[in-house]
Amino acid sequence: MIEILQAWAHGQPPHVTDLELLEQWELSDSKRAILWGITPETVKLKLQGRSHLFCRLFQENLDFPLLSQQLETLWKFWLPFATQLAESRQQLGRPLVQGILGGQGTGKTTLAKVLTYILSLFHYDTISLSLDDLYKTYLERQQLQRVDPRLIWRGPPGTHDVKLGIQVLEQLRQPLPGQTIAIPRFDKSLWQGAGDRISSEFVTEIDIILFEGWFVGCRPIDPEGFNSAPEPIITLADQQFARDMNEQLKEYIPLWEKLDQLMILNPVDYRLSKQWRIQAEHDMISTGKSGMTDAEISQFVDYFWKALHPQLFINPLIKNPELVNLIIEINPDHSLGNISRNQ
Questions:
Q1: Rounded distance, CA 319 to CA 46, Å?
Q2: Closest by Cα among 241, 168, 159 to 201
Q3: Sign of torsion over alpha carbons 288, 289, 292, 294
Q4: Rounded to an integer, what is the distance from CA 215 to the centroid of its chain?
Q5: What is the 3-state secondary structure (H, E, C) of the chain?
Q6: Strand order across the 326-330 sheet
């Protein structure tokens, strides 16, 4: 398969024999075929459309080396998922909001860039909005910390302007004719890394919104679950902090209700996110920039797990087909593992 894709990427047009081999390959994996709506009756038409998109991406000759570096991921996931998003947008008849839940290193930013790139071929304008963009201002968070000193870092429930998020998604979903919409943006480098709101980005006529974040879509759980919570929720103070963050999460439900779909980028082991964060910091330090020590990173990640532990909050979502439509496993090397649709 990869040889065929490499040939196409270098300008060789698809041959009938190439498509026939790919048809056999797609049908040989029944789970993947069902995922993308492929049957013996539809496989030819589906793959003709996908191969056309694939070749167009490389004919454009745009500066996006990631596509040529991950041809298999492009073929197996990015292209068919983008196609389904475009179809869903068309059926919905209004801008579509796709939620993306994923922690550090799961590839949220990469996915959003690739989808935006592919969806432009459908003549759909796409915008990414991060939960981070909805942080309260620096001054507001300083005041928040005076009220609750446990909120030593931005990130947990309560540090975002939920009303702003609801307002923005409502405007994007139901825009007035010719309306210009202000998209909030956040710069994490300001105030010695504490971050602050910066000038908004102004957009019109957006078709698809990719709303991503580390707890996008998470719902409150039964407080009894914190009585025997996993590490690093150890002390009574840890348990109380987790219960309070769980209570804060209720304020986010109206924001989650603006999502049309929700996908989860789910590491095969949630603890990988700490390893990925450490590696990312090492890479940054190697370029001459300052960064945190391994111990500081461990403390930083533990703080987020104490607020919303992946085992407690993400596992229930994975089992709920009414809230989550797609689950993508992320392997230790950041590659994609099993991809499944919630039934």
A1: 29
A2: 168
A3: negative
A4: 10
A5: CHHHHHHHHCCCCCCHHHHHHHHHHHHHCHHHHHHCCCCCCCHHHHHHHHHHHHHHHHHCCCCCHHHHHCHHHHHHHHHHHHHHHHHHHHHHCCCEEEEEEECCCCCHHHHHHHHHHHHHHHCCCEEEEEHHHHECCHHHHHHHHHHCCCCCCCCCCCCECHHHHHHHHHHHHCCCCCCCEEEEEEECCCCCCCCEEEEEEEECCCCEEEEEECCCCCCCCCHHHHHHCCCCCCCHHHHHHHHHHHHHHHHHHHHHCCCCEEEEEEECCCCHHHHHHHHHHHHHHHCCCCCCCHHHHHHHHHHHHHHCCHHHHHHHHHCCCCCCCEEEEECCCCCEEEEEECC
A6: 126-130, 208-213, 96-102, 261-267, 326-330, 336-341
How long is the chain?
A: 343
Q: Taking each helix axis as running N to C, give the angle between helix 108-119 and helix 43-59, from 0 to 180 degrees, rounded to the nearest 10.
A: 100
As beta bridge partners, residue 211 has: 99, 129
pLDDT in tens, 272-290: 999 998 998 888 888 887 7
Place of tokens 């049309």: 260
d(CA 83, CA 216): 23
Structure tokens at 68: 């040529």
pLDDT tens by residue, 157-209: 999 999 999 999 999 999 999 899 999 999 988 998 889 999 999 999 999 99
Closest C-alpha among 78, 85, 90, 22 to residue 53: 78
Pair 261, 231: CB distance under 8 Å:
no
Alpha-carbon separation of residue 253 from 52, 86, 190 (angstroms): 40, 26, 29
pLDDT at residue 94 is higher than 90: yes
Task: Tell which residue, 82, 97, 117, has the closest CA to residue 210.
Answer: 97
d(CA 251, CA 159): 11
Residues 6+ apart with CB under 8 A from 153: 300, 303
CA–CA gap between residue 78 and residue 310 (Å, rounded): 25
CB atoms within 10 A of CB 112: 20
